[in-house]
Amino acid sequence: MKRIIFSLLILSCGLVAACIPEETVFSTEANRPGKKPEETPENPDVPEDPDIDYKGIDPRLFEVINMDFPGLEAMKAQYEEKDMYGAAAALKEYYRTRTGVVNPAVNLSDKTITASAKSVADQALEHRFYTMSNTEGTGPDGFTLYYDADGADGKISWEKAPDGVLDKEEYLKQIHRFMWMPYQAKAYYATGDEKYVRSILEVYDDYMSKYPVPSGKGSGTPWTGLQISQRLLGWLEVLPYIAGAESFTPEWLAKMTVHTHDALECLRKTWYTPSSSNIYFTQVQALLENAMFFPEYTMGPEWFEDGISLVTSQLSEQFNSDGVQNELDVSYHLGVVANFEEIQNFAVANGRTQNFPSNYTSMLKGSCRFVMDSAYPDYTFENFNDTRSARTSKSVTLRNLGTYCSMFPDDQELLYMASDRTKGTAPKELVQKYPVSGWYMMRSGWGPQDMMLIHKNNNDPADHWHCQGDNGTVSLWYKGRRFLPDAGTYTYTNGSTRNSFAAAANHNTLTRNKASLAAGRRMGKLLKHVSTAGYELLVTENASYSDLTHRRAIFMVDKAFFVIVDEGYGKAEAPVNVQWYLCADEKGSLAENAAEFDDLSASHAYGAHTVFSDGNNMAFRTFSETTAGFATETGLAWCSNDIDTRYQRRYYRITVDKASDKAARFITVIYPVASEVPEIQASFTDNSAGAEGTFHAEGASVKVTIGGTEYNLTYSL
User: What is the pLDDT of residues 29-78, one digit of tens each?
Assistant: First the structure.
C-alpha cells in the first residue's frame, strides 16, 4: 500500500507498494504508448518569448512555481534578468540546500546502503524492476531476481508482462508504480555513481513520452489507482537524494517540476472509489504529503487545504467503529495505520500539525490494539483474506508495535508486547472481540508458548475485495506452529485461481454442499461471550446461505483445548459439510509427512492428528449428531503464504444430509498431544433418542470425554 513498516522484512529500505487489483489495464486509448491525448493540458504551455533563450527549460516552470516563496529569491532574480536556465539552476540549488522542508523518510546523514537495497538498484539499471510479487527467483547475488521488463525490441514494455509472470495484470500495475526508484536514488547518494540517476531519468523520460499526463480525469493503468499515487510519493524520496547530482540538470528539474504539478492536478480529478478504500487513502496521502513537501508550488496552499480536509474525513472512513480497517485484511490494516502515522510524521517534521484534527492520534488507538491482538505469540499473522504470512516477521511486527507505543506511551499492555514481553504489563483478557468487523481471538495466555485461536466471522455485506467469504473459519497456533493455516491468496487475478483459494469450502468452516457464499452473505454476528473458571466461550452466527445459517460455538476449556460446536439450521434440504485443513510439514511441501487421518466413520466421526517429531502435535476429532448421508472425504488442498507461492496440506471433510426440518450438527475437539492420541468422544446432550438434529435456538449442550475425563459444556442465549 505504501512505504509500510511491515514490508521491511523484504528489503531494508525504500518504498513498498501493495498488490491491489484495480480497473482493467489500459482501458483507454489515450494512455497507450505513442498515443497523444486528444486534449491539451488544462494549463496550456506558457508562450515562449522569442527574445529569450530558454536553453531547454520548460517555460511552464515559472507558472507552476511561486517565485515569491521565501528561499526562491535567487530564482526570481535570474528570471527577471531573463536568464531562464539560471533561474532553473537556482531552483535546483534551492532543493539541494533547503532546510525548512524535509521528508522524514529520507536520512541525508546516512550515506550507506544495504546489499539487498543495492541489488534492487542495480537490477533496475538493466530494467529488472522491483515488484512485490511475480519474481523470477534468486539472482547470482543471492537476492530476489526481478523480471526483465524489456520487450523483444530491447525497450521497456509497459503493457506486456514477461513470459513466466503468473499474475500479469498485477505485475503491470506494479511496474507503473516505480517502486525501485527510491532504491536507485539511495544508491546514488551512497556511492556517488551517476549511473543510478541517469537510469531514473531515462525511465522517466520513456514513461512521460509514452504516457503524457491527461488534462482531465486519468484512466487506465498509468493514471489511476495506486500507480499515480505511488509515483508521486516515490518522487518525494527520490528528489532529496539526487538534487545535487550532475546528471539531474536544470532542464530535467524543470520538466519534472511541471510533470509533478500536472500529475497532482490529474490525481485531484481521478479519485479512486469508494472513498473508504485503502487505494483512495493512499491518493489522499500523496496529495497532502506533496503539498507539505512542495509549499513553493503556486497550487501548494490549495493542495494542502484539500489534503487536510480529506485526511480528516478518512479517520472515520478507513476504520470501522471497533478500529479494524474496513477491508478487514490485516496487511492492509497495517498499511493504513502506517499511512496515518507517516502523514503525521511528515506534518510534525515540517511544522504543519496545527491544521490537523486534535483527535488525529487518539482515533488510531483501537486500530493499533487490533494489530497487537491479532498477532500470534511469535508476532506473525495468519493468511486470512489477502494477508500474506510470509511477509510478516517478528522483527517487523515489533517495529510496528514500537511505533504505536510512541503514539500511546501510557498503554502498558501495548508496551509489554512491543518490548517482546520485557517491559510494561501483560494483558489480562484472554479473549479479544472486534464484533463490528467480525474478528475474535482466544488465548490460553500471552506468553510465547501459549495457544491461540483466531475466529474470523466477518461482517462485510459490501463484499470488500480483500475480504474472503469464509465466515466462521478459524486458525490455530501453538508453540510456534500454525496447525490450521488459512488457505491464503495465491494470485490477485480475479479468476478461477483466486476464487478457488477464497472458496468457503477451502476453509475451516461449515458449508452447504461445499458452495461458496453468495454476494452480500458476509453478515457475521456475535451472539455471546462467556468467561468462567472452566472455559471461555464465543458464539457467533452467519446467514451464509438464503436457506442455511451457520452457528458456531467455540469453547476454550481449561485454557488447554478447544471444543467447537457447529450447527447449520434453516429450511435447506441439502448436504452440509464441515471441513478441517491441517498444516503441512515445515518445508511447506510434504503434507503427507505432517498429519495422519483417523478413520472413525463406523461411529459417524472422523479425525486426524499431526505427527511432528518434536512432540508439538494436535489431534482433531469431528462427530456428527445425525447419520443420514454420512460421508467422509480426505485429500490434499493448496495453501499460499505469499503471492505466487503455494504448497499442499491435508484436509478431511464430514458431510451429512440435512432435512428441511432439522439441523446439521457437529462437534469438533481440538486437543494438543505429544504423540499418542487419547480416546476422545463427544455427543450432544440436548436431544433425546429419535430427536437427533433438532435445533435449539436458545443454545446447545454437549458432553466431551478425553482420556476418561468428562466435560459437560453448555450455553444459552
Answer: 333 333 333 343 444 455 566 667 778 899 999 999 999 999 999 999 99
The CATH-assigned architecture of domain 431-716 is Distorted Sandwich (2.70)
Q: Which residues contact 199 (CB under 8 A, 6 or more apart)?
A: 124, 125, 184
Determine the Cα angle at 115 with ends 111 and 116, to 5°: 115
* 652 included as an active-site residue: no
635-647: per-residue pLDDT in tens? Answer: 998 888 887 788 8
DSSP category for residue 292: H
pTM of the predicted structure, to 2 decimals:
0.85
Contacts (Cβ under 8 Å, ≥6 apart) of 113: 13, 121, 186, 187, 189, 190, 191
Would you state the torsion angle of the CA atoms of residues 198, 200, 203, 205, taken in this order, to the nearest 10 degrees? -70
Residue listed under C-alpha cell 462437534: 667
Domain boundaries, the chain: 1-263, 431-716
Residue 26 has pLDDT above 90, yes or no: no
CA distance 431 to 676: 30
pLDDT at 38: 38
Which among 280, 332, 535, 711 is annotated as catalytic? 332
Q: What is the CATH number of domain 1-263?
A: 1.50.10.100
Secondary structure, 3-state, 525-537: EEEEEEECCCEEE
